[in-house]
Amino acid sequence: MWVHEVKTPLASANLILDNHPSATSTPLKEELKKVERFVEQALFYAKSNTVEKDYIINKLTLSKPVHAVVKKHAASFIYRHITLTLDNLEQTVYADGKWLEFILDQIIVNALKYCDDHGTITISANKEEQQVCLRISDNGCGISAADLPSIFEKGFTGSNGRSHEKSTGIGLYLCAKLCAKMYLGIRAESTPQQGTTMIITFPLGSHYQF
Length: 210
Description:
This protein is an alpha+beta fold. It has 2 domains: 1-51; 55-207, Heat Shock Protein 90 (2-Layer Sandwich), CATH 3.30.565. The protein is 44% helix and 22% strand. The strands form 2 sheets. Strands 2-4-5-7-6 form a 5-stranded mixed sheet, covered by helices on one side. Strands 1-3 form a two-stranded antiparallel sheet. Helix 1 (2-19) runs antiparallel to helix 2. The longest helix has 23 residues, at 25-47. The two termini are 32 Å apart.
């Protein structure tokens, strides 16, 4: 109830900024987006233990949720001059579209957070044996070898979370939890100072049973 109540003043604040544009409108809207993401995290966290009540597996094309999330953060890409490359996303997978968008949002927000201005983010997909792999890669600061095994643990922020803007340590934990509920795989590959790739795997054919 609190989550739904707090969304109203946030929407009103965005409308006020839209109707009274100024030099501070863009940075203020970016800060409001952060608040909205935290509110959304709280909602998904509260619902994550009862996902079966709000969970429908459908056949979908990866391009749809990817484009929806990218459009949501278009201003950040433009404002920070981050190059976005999309490749081979017309792959058909099975997932809950709403939950998948939330997962992609958390990952893309992290990629934007840890990528330098004028950096590059690449989102691509390819079909392998009985699965489709979706990769979201950035050329940012990367994750240390010591932190990498723990990034999906609840509350873990790591050295990047402490040195950049304050991290909640909840986003990737929720991603892993929701992927497990949908029988998707999720893992990360990273090299410090070179970047990070998050990989989501979608089982196909006989490996996915309804």
